[in-house]
Structures are given as C-alpha cells and as structure tokens.
Amino acid sequence: MAINLTINGAAYNVDIDPDTPLLWVLRDEIGLTGTKYGCGIARCGSCTVHVDGQPAKSCQLKAASLVGKQVTTIEGLSKDGNHPVQVAWKEIGVPQCGYCQSGQIMSAAALLARTRDPSESDIEQAMADNLCRCGTYLRIKAGIRRAAQLGV
Amino acid sequence: MNAINLSRRFFIQTSLAASGGLMLGFHMPTALAAVTEPKPWKTPESGIEVNAWLVLDPDGTVTIRIPHTEMGQGGMTSVALMIAEELDVEWSKVKAVFADPNRHLRNNKEYKVMSTHGSQLVAIQHPHLMQAGASARERLKEAAAQAWGVTRDKVEAKQGVLKSGSNSAPYAQFAAAAAKVTLDKEPAIKEDASQWWLLGTGTQRLDIPNKVNGSAQYAIDTRIPGMVYAAVKASPVPWGKLKSFNADAIKDQPGFIAVVELRAVEGKRGQPDMQDAVAVVATSWYKAKNALAMLPVEWEFGESAKASSKGMSENATKVLGEKGLITKEDPKAIEVIAASKKVVTADYERPFETHLRMEPINATAHVQDDRVDVWSPSQDQSAAVLIVADQLGRDPKDVYAHPVFLGGGFGGNGGGGTAVTRQAAEISKRLKRPVKVLWPREEDVAQDKQRPMSAARMTASIGDKGLPEAIFTRALWYTQDKQNQIGPATADYGIHNMPYKIPLRHHERHNLDTHIPSSTHRGPGANQTGFITEVFADEMALAGGWNPLDWRIEMTKDQADWQLVLKTLKEKANYRTDLPKGEGMGIAAVECHGTIAAACATVSVTRRGQLRVEKIVIVADCGHVINPHAAKEQMEGAACYELGHAWVGGLDIREGRIVNTNMDTYNILRIEQMPEIESYFALSGGKKWGGMGEPAGPPVPPAVANAIFAATGKRIRKTPFRQYDLTWA
User: Fold this and answer.
1) Pairing with B58, which of B79, B491, B527, B703 sits 20 to 30 Å away (CA)?
2) Is the peptide bond before B272 cis (omega within 30 degrees of 0)?
3) Which 3 state secondary structure label does DSSP give B648?
4) Do A24 and B286 touch (CB under 8 A)?
5) How many domains does chain B have?
6) With a cut of 70, which residues of chain A have pLDDT below it?
7) Peptide bond into B675 cis (omega under 30)
8) Integer Cα distance of B172 and B517 in angstroms
9) Peptide bond preceding B720: is omega within 30 degrees of 0, i.e. cis?
C-alpha cells in the first residue's frame, strides 16, 4: 500500500507492505543507503536514525508507524557534513571501516541534543547499543566531548 | 632491495577516460562515489596518466589510484601518502581513487599486487608503491630538463612545481612528455625516515569525510537499475547436502521472483567455493528474507551433526596426550623435564571465533553477454574478478570488479572467502538480471570461515636460576579438512618459534579435522597462540620467582628489538606486582607480521567477580611508521578486537551447527568495556618494516589474563574469560 513518509524534510510516497521496517524502506525503496543493516534485531545500532529527534533503530520501526513523523537519517543530519558531531568525527578521525558510524553519529547527535555536556557515564549509556567492530570506542568518546565543545 | 624496475610499460600515456580509473573516495566530502552509477567505469576524468598509479591534472589535482582495499585500516591513505612523498606534491591536491582490477589483470598484474592482507600494505608493498612516485618525479624532471636545455640534476621537483633557474612549471605541464621518458636507471626510494617530509607526520585519512555523512559506498550499498535481491541459506550444519525444498510454498509471497538452487562442486571444499544453498530472489531484500524464512528446506547433515564445542574440547584434551607431528625435535628436552624436580605444566584452549564484520556478507553481480560487473567486499578486488570468471567460465578480461569500501575485513576476505561473490554471479547468470546477494546476519556468522579452535599442552622444567631449562609443547587446531597451514598460521605458530631462549625445546602439533569452514583471521596464528605462550610465560616466570616483565627482558637479552620493546614498556607502563588484591597488572609480548608488540594491562576485579579492564599500554616495533595517526588507530582497534574475543567472544557449536549467530548471543566488545589505551612506538628502523593492522591485538588477551591472575590468584587458561568465576574473598 502507499504510505507517505517525511524523511530529511522531504515527502516520499512509497508503495510497500506497511510492516516493512524503515531500514529497508530507506535502503532499498528510497535509496538512502547511509543507514546500515548490521544485525536486524536492534542489537548493533548501525541502523540508528532520528524519529522526531529521538534516536531509534530503524530495523525495528514499521514504516506505517512513521506516518506524520519526522525521520532524519545520516544524510539529513546536516546539509554539508558540518553538524558538530560530524566536524568532531573528522577532526579526531573517528571512523575506521566506517560501517557503524552513521548509527554512532546519529546516537551521539541525539545525546548532545538532550545533554549539552554529557558525562562519561552519560556517553556510555547513550552509546551502549551502538557496536563497533573496529574498536573506535575511545575516539567516539573523544568525538562526543569535542562536539560538546563545538556546541550542538 | 628497492630496485624494482618499472619498465616502460608503466608509462604509456593514456587518457583516463579510456583506461578507466574508478572514482571513489575523494577527500572532498561532497564528492559521491560514482560506483553506484550503472556504469561507473565510464566516469569522465581529465588529466594525463604518468603511470598506472598517477594522473596529473592541469588544475594541480594529483589523482592517485589505489590498488588496495580500504577496510578501515587506512590503506587508501597509506598508498597515497607513499606515492605523494616521493612525487613531492601538495597533500591537499591529492585525490585518491581505487585502481581498476580488470586493468590490473589485463595488463599482466600491472599494480603488482591488489590483495590487502597480512598487514603487508606498508611493510611489504612500500618499495614498489614509493617507486611509482619516485619514478614519476624523475621522469617529470627529465622532461623539463630536455625542454629547458639543462641536465636533470639542475631541475628541482617540489610541491608540484618543476624549477630550474628562471624556468618554472607545474608538474602537469610535463606529464605527457614524462610518460614517454626512459631513464637509465630508476631512482632510489626514501627508505630512511629521516628523509621524509610527509610520511611519519600523522595524516588525516582520506576516507573519513565520506564516512561521516553516509556517502561512502560499501558493496552492500550497490544499487543498479533492474536489480533484484537474494537472501541465501546454506545448511545450518556446514557442508550439509541440500535434499529438497518446496518453492511452491512461497511463490505467492509478496515480491517473490524465484528460488535458485546452488550446489557445492564435488571435491572443491577449499575457499572460496560455494556450499549447497538455496537463494530466494525477490523485489526487495526484506521480502526475499521473509520468503526464505518460510521456505521448506530439507538438508542431509551426515556425521557432522554430532560435532559440538564440548566434544571437540574433550577430544582436544585426549589428543594432547598423543604424539603429534614434530616441528622441533629434541628428546633431551623431554628427558630433562622427566627428571626435573620443578615442572610447570598447563593446558590451554581457545574456541572458534568469527569475523563479524559490521557489514554482513554480500555481493552484487550483473552478468551480461558481453561483460560481467561485480561489487564484492573482497580484500583482493582482482581475485573477485578471477572468482567470477571461474564461476561463470568467462574470460577475466570481460569481468569488471568495482572497488568499494569494506565494512571491516579482519582477514575474512569479505566473507566466506567470497563464496558470496560466486553466488551473486551464479544467480545473476541464471536470472539474466543484476542481483544483490545479502546473507542475513545469522547466515553471516553461521557460514563465515572461522578462526580455528585451538589448544595446547605446555610443559617446562625450571632450572637453578629460576629460568626454564627445557620446554615440551603440543599444540592442536581444528581446521576444515585438517589443513596444516592457513596463511602464516599453523597449530603451533608462535609456540615453536617463541622468542624466549630456552636451551632445550621440543615442539609438536596436531591438525584435527572439522566441517567448520576455517580461514585466516586478523593476526593469524599469533592471535590464538600468543595467549597460550604468554600466559604460560607468566606461569614459568612466577614459578621461578621472577618478576614477569624482568623475566621477559632476561629471556630475550640477545635480541635487540625485543629488548627495545620490553624496556620501553617497562619505562612507560609503571608495571607493578604489589597492588592490593582485586587489582592487578599483567604483561605479554607477541610478534606478528614482522612487528613485536608488548602490552601491559591493568585490571580490577570486584569481590563479586566483576572484571573491569582499566587500561592497556601497548608498545610496538614495526620498524617504520608512515602514518602514526592511522597506526595508533590500528593499535586501539586490534586491542579491542582481540580483547572482545578473549573476554566475551567464542562460537558455540552444538549438533554440528553454530548456535550463537547474531549479536544477542555472539558478543563483541562494547563501549563500556573498552579500556583506556596508551600506545607507543619503539622503532628499530633500519631494514625492519613490520605490519601494523594486526600485531597490537595478540598480546592483549594474555596481558589481561595475567593481570586477572595478579588481581585474584585465578589462572585463566581458556577463553572467553567470562566463563570463569572471578569472585574472591
């Protein structure tokens, strides 16, 4: 069936089974491939997006539940890759393979939007569900502290 | 050693549009990878090719073609740095693109090697990569010298500008002429770090901007017109035979297109061959995956269904009591141990581990009559071409692999030894349309080629000065079809060649058979046996009354590089053996891919047994470091990777199948478990060029295990650590 979704401020009309997870709508229907599939069971965080500003795992979000909501993906976080988290990520050189980083960045941006100057434990709590196989965790923490300095 | 002869064939002037560099991985964040376009090999480029690696543009842009894969290790940047160092151009003008694997094969391995493994990119490949830059520089100078009527030594090439007296010109002006220059002899490359202006300075990686805005293209992101999606399932017990399936049962599922039967080729079990499998093809991957889950399939598992981790462990203990293949024979060692009053002996064991790249195993292929296009996460893009050509019986000249970023590598070669690439080619051939094959994560774990399970029995006698006088070891591993060697690894790699000078040594190994596919894994060999040798070293040192760090320094006293690393660790780590109970420090040192890495771990363990790894200090001697920034990232990353395996990892096999196949049950290190890491280089320089992508990992698990012993008195001889009760009173 046809569903109207608002993604990164743009309206999309997609013809899909309403139970389809947002992740696959983004990747395979719309072509926004920055949001990644990692586990499909909400354990790795690679698919993290914002729904009305809150971080959410898009592999578990049914498309139909998003009608009337604002979805933001990594592609829409900033116009030119200059959200403070992205700037900090570049300064510090956080990504290695980079595959999990869209999710990491979306979780970090959501954290900083609600907690301007997060503590170590705020960071660990907010980022607990975002796994990284390359082991960039120390730089993720440093990136969040740097982004906090830059001001979200 | 650096006299690689770049013959004239490297220097044919060709317009890029004809030769086909693939645009990808710009340093500018706005530039999207063209690989997602239907025909990326036709991406227009300007500029003049000086050699296969280099294209100079009149606007000053220097395009460097990267033959190797970028899987997070910074390889793209490393290649560009080495060439730019020699060419002498402004780093801000450098644009990196991936080299074309088809061209590489068409021109008789023009880039020499495209495989990216074994931490070799800098350590082994630097001579010819630096030569490509140096040779181009000298040819540019020679072309300018001829135009200006001076000799080459009167021309200076610096930061993209050629100068002689009052003459001056940008490199690009002489690019065409340079491509035709013949030199009497190739210039020497700058192997000595004191000559470098760019290398060693710590450069931001070129791939970062595309990895913070979602634009970096991985194989899984491939989208081409008309593409359909396949979800694949092989036998849950690896190498089981496909008996039957009922496609009719799912033919009415939404988006269903076809079920494709895939068959293992009899007699071909080595990588990268396919197992029996069923692929469900649909209009979206989500639909394909759902339909696959509903497909009735029957398998014939055979004897393999009896295998279990528990049974393999019990068998390992039994086999360690039996004579194996002798890799160093010394009956005296066994006699001395038998007669000794002070013997240390222990068994160690490590389970199978999986790569778990964050990008699940996938590939896309488009098979047409006149050409085949493929997007594969292989660590060797030219091998992807050959695999597809082999699968389809096609001429490799007609197969085009389009290099992509890899969502992790870790020695897994893009998954299943790229069996998935064969599957994509096969399905596309049969359906006559482009297809993306993606293994669900559960399949990715269940069917990946795993790090072998391994075990060892270590026995040593301690002599008068408290130092070992004889050692007798037996190691084993379980590999598919009893392989004796995988990459550099053997069952006793790192054991029979441990650095410690023990006068009498006798080593044996067993190769045990398993149906579980096995392959290389980050730090092969050293990753398993480093834990075994270094925990045992701790046991030997303490049995002889030695401080474990001083013991290692004493036992390597005639080896300068080990001394450098261990003494630097002693200076940096503030290693102590007198911490209060519940706190402890541990030491380990392992050589891997030509690099020695030593680690000092600090842990705390609560009375209730909760482990926290507080800090790890790592010192490495890789001889030379071309990009300290990326090298330190690799030290952190390799430490995290190995600590994950050792602390919380471990594949569990029951009834022949891997049962912990997703991230709820197969664990990797999490942010709150990540210790602070302090990393240092202790570089011996000279002719030593060691790898840096893997070596920092292997010493971490034994350092942590030794620290746990110091904190609790509980000796860890198996991984994962989480199976131990660490409570203390």
Assistant:
1) B79
2) yes
3) helix
4) yes
5) 3
6) 152
7) no
8) 51
9) yes
Q: Are B51 and B71 within one domain?
A: yes
Within 8 A of B441 by CB-CB distance, chain A residues are 38-41
> Does the ipTM exceed 0.90?
yes
Q: In which band, very low, low, confident or very high, does the pLDDT at B37 lie, cut at 50, 70 and 90? A: very low
Contact B89, B172 (CB under 8 A): no
DSSP string, A95-109: -SS-TTHHHHHHHHH
Closest CA to A139 of A106, A118, A108: A108
Chain A residues touching B632 at Cβ < 8 A: none
Question: Of A75, A106, A122, which closes a domain?
Answer: A75
Catalogue the E-assigned strands of B577-661: 583-592, 595-605, 611-621, 653-654, 657-658
Contacts of B205 in chain A (CB under 8 A): 93
Q: Do residue B208 and residue A89 have CB atoms under 8 angstroms apart? A: yes
Q: Does A12 reach chain B within 8 Å, measured CB to CB?
A: no
Quote the tokens at residue B211.
């990895």
- What is chain B's length? 729
Distance (Å, rounded) from C-alpha A71 to C-alpha B71? 29
**pTM of the model as a whole:** 0.94
Q: Are residues B423 and B572 in the same domain?
A: no
User: For the segment B506-523, what is each residue's pLDDT rounded down to a tens digit?
Assistant: 999 999 999 999 999 999
CB contact under 8 A, B636 and A138: yes
Which residue of chain B has the CA closest to A86? Answer: B212
Same domain, A61 and A114: no
Question: CA of A81, closest CA in chain B: separation in Å?
Answer: 6
Work out the end-to-end distance of chain A between its first and last CA atoms, rounded to an integer number of angstroms.
38
For the domain that residue B659 is a member of, what is the CATH number? 3.30.365.10
Number of domains in chain A: 2
For residue B563 the two structure tokens come to 């001394």
3-class secondary-structure state, position B174? helix
Residue B247 has a CB neighbour count (10 Å cut-off) of 16
Show the domain range for B577. Answer: 488-505+514-723
Sign of the alpha-carbon dihedral angle for B541, B542, B546, B547: positive
The DSSP secondary-structure symbol of B185 reads S
Based on the domain organization, do A56 and A119 belong to the same domain? no
| Alpha-carbon gap, residue B204 to B215, rounded angstroms | 18
SS3 B116: coil
